[in-house]
Amino acid sequence: MSTGSMIQTEQHERVGLVRLNRPQAMNALNNLLMIELMDALSAFDADQDIGAMVLTGSERAFAAGADIKEMADASPVDMLTRQSVAQFDRIQQIKKPVIAAVSGWCLGGGCELALSCDMIVASETARFGQPEITIGVIPGAGGTQRLARAVGKALAMEMVLNNRTLTADEALHYGIANRVVPVERYLAEALALAAEIAGRAPLAVRLGKEAVNQAFNSFLYDGLADERRLFYLLFSTHDQKEGMAAFTEKRKPEWHGQ
């Protein structure tokens, strides 16, 4: 096992395991974590001894969102130049299958990260949501686009506009999760699924993933670009500053519509 400041990696025969490791922050995604995460996935992707990957967090939280303190005072130009959100683009370049093993909170950027993976194995305690509206912004790393494609327009609207969260069983019903298992089994189940896939013909697996993604990617990239533009635009508003300040100060925000 190798350990970075924000992630841990292990190899289980032909399966690479990447674990988010910010327990004190419920695995909130900051820029350094995202860089380390994508570097680890890329390294496994380049390793001929690895056939598939599993990405996980802890039983309590896959990832409870982005690190709000890191972006609370940012301007649109700050967000653009930091390239924090752009780190999510790197997962689209991974050729081998990536399975998210999700338990507990999977919110905001954490939900976007899980949706960026190829499959999701969820524990019974998993909760999926995009609560960005509560801090004066919208999802900016694919949440509006991948969510709408997965669950449909109506439910995606409720999740994005009114902080609706989905239970594990609801995520299974709406096609976000592949399966739901007891919390004590979710990681083992994801590793077993990854091991089965890693035992298939490598080129067929790679091209099969590419073919399935092509069914969605034709319009996805334009949607992601529009989503990110609107996300960055909101960092010029008073409500974004108020919403994120209220979050860090643990109080109710006062919206002004400007």
Could you explain how this protein is built, in words?
The protein is α/β, with parallel strands linked by helices. It has one domain (2-184): 2-enoyl-CoA Hydratase, Chain A, domain 1, CATH 3.90.226.10. Helices cover 45% and strands 17% of the residues. The chain contains 10 helices and 11 strands. It has helices at 31-46, 68-71, 76-82, 109-116, 143-151, 153-162, 168-173, 186-198, 202-233, 238-249, and strands at residues 2-3, 7-12, 15-20, 52-56, 61-63, 98-102, 105-107, 119-123, 127-129, 166-167, 179-181. It has a 7-stranded mixed β-sheet, with helices on both faces. It has a 4-stranded mixed β-sheet with strand order 5-7-9-10. Helix 1 (31-46) links the parallel strand 3 (15-20) and strand 4 (52-56). Helix 5 (143-151) crosses helix 6. The longest helix has 32 residues, at 202-233.
Q: How is this fold's topology laid out?
A:
Layout: E1 2-3, E2 7-12, E3 15-20, H1 31-46, E4 52-56, E5 61-63, H2 68-71, H3 76-82, E6 98-102, E7 105-107, H4 109-116, E8 119-123, E9 127-129, H5 143-151, H6 153-162, E10 166-167, H7 168-173, E11 179-181, H8 186-198, H9 202-233, H10 238-249
Parallel strand pairs: 3-4, 4-6, 5-7, 6-8, 7-9, 8-11
Antiparallel strand pairs: 1-2, 2-3, 9-10
| Percentage of residues in strands | 15-25%
CATH C-level name: Alpha Beta
Count the E strands.
11
Task: Give the overall pLDDT as a whole number.
Answer: 89
Global shape: globular
The name of the CATH superfamily reads: 2-enoyl-CoA Hydratase, Chain A, domain 1
The class by helix and strand makeup works out as alpha/beta
The CATH topology label is 2-enoyl-CoA Hydratase, Chain A, domain 1
Annotated CATH architecture: Alpha-Beta Complex
First-residue to last-residue Cα separation: 49 Å
Regarding quaternary structure, how should these chains be classified?
single chain
Largest sheet: 7 strands, mixed
Helix coverage percent: 40-55%
The number of distinct helices, counting runs of at least 4 residues, comes to 10
